[in-house]
Amino acid sequence: MNKLSLKPQVWIILPALAAVLIIVTILGIAVYHLRVTEKASPAVVPRLSMAYNLKLDSLQVSYGKVGNNQSLSDILSPFIPGSIIDKIAKETTEVFDVKKMHQGNAIARICLKDSTHRTLYFIYEINSIEFVVYDFRDSLRVYRDKKHVKAVVKTASGIISGSLWNTFEKLGLDINLALDLSEVFAWTVDFYGLQNGDGFKVIYEEMYVDGRMIGIDRVLSASFLTSGREYYAFLLEGKGKRAYFDENGQSLQRSFLKAPLRFSRISSRFSRARMHPILRIVRPHFGVDYAAPHGTPVEALGEGKVTEAGWKGGYGRFIAIRHNSVYSSSYAHLSGYAKNIKPGAHVSQGQVIGFVGSSGLATGPHLDFRVYKNGSPVDPLHLESPPSDPVPASTMPMFKILVDRWKPQLDKIKL
Fold it and tell me: Which terminus of the chain has fewer Cβ atoms in its 10 Å neighbourhood, N or C?
């Protein structure tokens, strides 16, 4: 009786339930298809009027990246005849060798927006600025080009807390800017002797491509306050070269670097009576020990000729450089040597000559760095080095304009 009385209700409800199930299924398929399509399809930007310095009227751009072990043939074979791909590989290496394509680098395909979707251009981005264009419109044409780079002037400042590196990290500043500052003031500021409370100000340019910051271009001017003195630096460019000078036009570059490696700490200073950490005897230590991680690059103090490069007893792996008739320097306890470093080799200032290690009599990774004047050891931390050439007289009027422009702006920046 109950079952028979329920039948009319069941026949009424079932069609409604079926309709709901069909709608839910259709919606689920649509959502799944949308997600799959979004994930699988390349990013298409059809509304751009320009891309890669090309007009995109009636064209469409699809972006992607070079996959793992993916060759140019793998990428282009669905769109371009094999004979043309082969021609690219064999005849356009002077423009760009396709064997040097890197996984993860950006690529783009520009094609017609009609039903044929014919490929007109293929782009490979060498880096964030440079790219290669493969033009398939008529006969094959291949050339390099650059994106438009917008430079934006920025300022930064800070008070030293611990070290320059730590200070930049705490302030959330680009570490590359710290490296640039250390290069600008490498000859005038001892970055290993910075004290808490020292400070810096810098005016620099950031590079933007397509609205995205890609890096720091150059430091325009900067100042560094240390040991109660403020050092200024102003950029002067000419004939493809960049150099920094103080407010009076004197070069910041010196004959020697302040230190042979960056961002470490002094673990032992110049002394005429020091307890040797291993031999446990008191004897002179005519150098400065810089504690740094194993493998840290070691740079030549100045231009010169390598006179020694090899194992030297307790010094371990050792390098000696003669800079001129007066000065020479040495580097001990290295883990290895840079390429082509051997007796007789010529090195330039700042050139990497070896790497920090703990060879010989050493309790841990560090560099034993020494400087000699006329054969006698001198304290590297108190080494006087003559400046390079100042701003030429013919360029001074232009340089003064730069100083008058940037110095007031530096002075206004608060630490």
Answer: N
Q: 154 with 239, same domain?
A: yes
Q: Residue 26 pLDDT > 80, yes or no?
A: no
For 271, phi then psi, to 5°, come to -155, 145
What is the rounded CA–CA span in Å between residue 227 and residue 258?
15
| Two tokens, residue 79 | 């769109």
Rounded Cα gap, residues 149 and 364, in angstroms: 46
Are residues 337 and 354 in contact, defined by beta-carbon separation less than 8 angstroms?
yes
pTM flag (> 0.85):
no
Q: Are 184 and 233 in contact (CB under 8 A)?
A: yes
Residue type, 66: V
pLDDT confidence of residue 174: 92
pLDDT in tens, 349-398: 999 999 999 999 888 899 999 999 888 898 888 887 766 789 999 999 99
Q: Return the CA Rg of the chain.
A: 32
On whether both 177 and 135 belong to a single domain, the answer is no
How high is the pLDDT of residue 165? 87
The distance between the two most distant Cα atoms of the chain, rounded to a whole number of Å, is 121
The answer to whether position 171 is within a domain reads yes
Of 267, 174, 176, 185, give the one whose Cα is nearest residue 226: 185
